[in-house]
Every structure is written in C-alpha cells, then in structure tokens.
Amino acid sequence: MSPSVTASGYQHVVVSGSPYERGTMHGKQAIEKIRTNIQRYKHSASSTLPNSDICATFIRNVYLPAIEKDFVAGLEEMRGIADGAEVDLSDIILLNARYDLARLQGTSKVGECTSMAYLQDRGAEMDEVYVAQNWDMSSWLYDEDTIIVLESHNPAADNESSPSTIIALTEAGQLARSGMNSCGLGLCANSLWSNEDASLEQPISESKPVLPFTLARRMFLECGNFAAGLKAVCSFPRHVSGNVIVGTREGVAIDVELTPSSYFTLSPQVPLSLPGSSTSTILTHANHFVSPAMQSRPDILDTYTGGSSLFRDRRLLGLVSKDLAIDEPPIVESPRDARTIDSIKRAFADHAGFPRSLCEHEDKGEQKYGAVTGNTMTVASVIYDLQKLEMHICKGNPCCGTWITYRISKERKGNVLGFKL
Predict the structure, then answer these.
(1) pTM (2 d.p.)
(2) Domain extent at residue 227
(3) Does residue 409 sit within a domain?
(4) Which residue ranges does the record assign to the Peptidase C45 hydrolase domain (predicted)?
(5) Which of 38, 65, 205, 351 is the most buried (most CB within 10 A)?
(6) Is the residue at 418 inside a domain?
(7) 48-76, pLDDT tens digit by residue?
(8) pLDDT tens track for 252-287
(9) Is residue 369 part of a domain?
C-alpha cells in the first residue's frame, strides 16, 4: 500500500462499501483538503465562481433536482463526503459543479487540458489501449495539495454490469475528473465553450434541471460496458459545453464534443507506420471544437477566443506519431507498451509555445495584446492503460515531476479488486 501523502504524489484515498460509506471514508480521509477547496472556491478573491447566493440558487433549483432524478447513488456518496468532512451537502455539490458554475460567471477562455487516445492492434488482439491527458487547472490546487487519487471499491458489483473498482484523479470532494474502472473503461475530459452555454445574463427562473459535468464523468465510470457509458455521456442533461475522450480495453476509443443541445463524435483516424505488422491510430483534442459535423452547424458556434488550444492537439499528435513511427530500434530494448508510455510522457512534457505549452507552467511572465496571465498550470499528467488496468500519474508538470503507477490487481479478493503500487 502506498503512503497517503508523498512529496512526489497526490494523496491516495481508498474507500469501500455502499455509496454513502464510500463517501464518508472519502470525507474523513481528505477532510482538510475538502475544506480548503470549499474555502478557495467560495471565498477566495481569485475564485472563478459567481457569488454565494447565485451558487446556492443553482445548486438548489438546477443541480439538485437532476441529481435526485438521474444519479441517486452519486447523491448518496456526496452526502457521505459531506458528513465525513463535516460540511454542508451544498458545499460538496458546489465542488462537483465548479466547472459548470464557472461558465455562468464567464470565466476567461484560457484553455484547460489536452487529451488523447491511442490504439495499437497487432492483428490477433488489441495490444494497447490508452486514454491520457495533461490536466491544466488553477495552480493553487497543486500548491496547496488538494488533489487526490480516489480508489473506490464496490463489494456489491459483479464486474460485468458494473465495476467493482474505480480509480479517479480528482479534486478532493469531487467524484471524478478523469478515471478508469475494473471493466476496462477509461475517460479523460477537457473544456469547450459554445454560444449555447448558460450564463448569468439569462434569468435563473428559466434554467432547467441539469447535471454537473463532473457527475456525468463519474456516471460513465460506473458503467460496466462501453455502450452504456457512451449513453451516459451523450444523454445527460447539461447547460454548458465540454469534451470527453472515452475508451475501452476492447479496442475502441471515441471523442465526444458536447454542447447543451447536441453531441459530435470523432474516432482515431490517423494511422501510424510502425515497424512490423502492427497498426496504430491516435486521436488528440484540446479546447476548441474540431468535428466537421459541429463546424457545419450554423446555429452552434465555438466561442473559444484563440490561444494555445489551436496548436496543443496537433502538437501532441505530431510528437507521439513521430516518436512511435521511427523504424530504428530503441537504444535500450523495452516492451512495445513501455515505449508507448514513454513516448506519451515525453510528449506531455513538451514546451512548444511556452508557457502555455502542452506542459503549462504557472509563471507566465509578461503577456501582450490581451493574452490572459491567469495562474494556471499542468497540475497533473495521467495515462490510463486500459489493457493492463494501470494508471500512470505525475504530480505537477511532467517535465520535472515523478511518475507513479497504480495497478488494478487481477487477483480477486471476493468481489473487490485491490490496487497495488
């Protein structure tokens, strides 16, 4: 078992039992981190959320009714987190809705996260399936160490209709930002903006019940098969845009661009010329819409204002493709999957366009012509290996951080799969 906190890694929070029991354990183990996150989002001068009265109204009238209807288990887990951390349930819902609430405020569109999927098929079976991302977010989450690796066990699950284990990278108090489950499903996500997104210019009375985006990500991870997971992410009620890259160890990955009214999909379509008979495809995404179906819609507009998103996705694609397509054998012989993971790690550490590069750094220096200087950075880099059920995570900037690996043990312990470091 890994230590709870290390200099190189985020706190590893392990929970088990019913949704409420798992939430209570989460709340107790991460109590100070949860309270810090609540304080920063509700009361900090740098908070990107609307004022407390507006947040409370949306939580009560917009988010809670949808959660009660569509995600009862999630609501019970959030009740447990609130009780374990000795805070109000509304504060835990606020943490899980912070992405959505920030959009109401009109947060600057600086760009958050670069995601990818990589598939390699050697003919007889799908040998490698990865979803991965650099998570770019407010630097205080890293500085104050309020991110956790949440390992959740459900003893009642059968690992067919539902997973017995979920591991997620998330802010303390949230149910998931990205993650992987024991059924071989994985998800990463990044921000999008469209003219359909809700804003404070619209009367609150006109707002319909919707689910926070974070809860939809967890709903995907609660599914036992890819079709059910796709149904969850495509159909959940929402009032802001966003993007998810989802995959399954069975060799399928899809990017889903979401607006409040629609979804648009992309599949890995860039073949790599690898040595031998293997074939590989890769898909990357940043913070602007790229699907032809969305771009052909005159009624839905991408409202991203320009910046690093316009090159980060293509840069990531080019780096990984070039690195893995080299015909010359590596200097040090290693398994193909280790080479792939190393290539992804190197790509995520790239500094083209510094400081708003793939590996984003907090110190932005002097910025000209309206460029935003917000204190954002790559707070974590993560790679989910859906075949081996391994999570590789780097705390902070991948150019200088230490990578840690978590594995889902393939040895059953009753109905629970244990993680090993």
Answers:
(1) 0.93
(2) 11-363+375-413
(3) yes
(4) 127-397
(5) 38
(6) no
(7) 899 999 999 999 999 999 999 999 999 99
(8) 999 999 999 999 999 987 666 565 656 889 999 999
(9) no
